[in-house]
């Protein structure tokens, strides 16, 4: 039981970090699940970032998080399959012919916190 509580607390701490980083993504910019995972200190946790954002509150701009190619892989969680793209376009985000975000123009890299 004790390990279960410890693991749950670790997950909550990680999710909180994900939310705090996601809130900092500027309007008109995007970042990737992997970039957020790296900024949280667990480079291999991109999928967990997705899980965290899938269950987040509406004040977190989860629509600004895309996969490493700029694809809108999280759009299925927005109810309307076009909502994520519509929100990004309303912020001035542009897309290529394959429907991926132009990462060269719109990518925002979160700062990695260095542990002291």
Summary, kept brief:
The protein has 116 residues and is mainly α.
User: Helix content range of the residues, please?
Assistant: 40-55%
Assign the CATH topology.
Answer: Arc Repressor Mutant, subunit A
- Measure the end-to-end span: 31 Å
Number of helices: 5
CATH-defined superfamily:
Winged helix-like DNA-binding domain superfamily/Winged helix DNA-binding domain
Q: What is the SS-derived class?
A: mainly alpha
Strand tally is: 2
Mind summarizing the main beta sheet?
2 strands, parallel
Please state the second-level CATH architecture: Orthogonal Bundle
Morphology: globular
Name the beta content range.
under 5%
Number of domains: 1
The CATH class designation is: Mainly Alpha
Would you spell out the secondary-structure blueprint of this structure?
Elements: H1 2-23, E1 31-32, H2 33-39, H3 46-54, E2 65-66, H4 83-90, H5 103-106
Parallel strand pairs: 1-2
Helix pairs in contact: 2-3
Task: Write up what this structure looks like.
With 116 residues, this protein is mainly alpha-helical. Helices cover 43% and strands 3% of the residues. It has helices at residues 2-23, 33-39, 46-54, 83-90, 103-106, and strands spanning 31-32, 65-66. Helix 2 (33-39) packs across helix 3 (46-54). The radius of gyration is 15 Å and the shape is globular. It starts with a helix and ends in a 10-residue tail after the last helix.
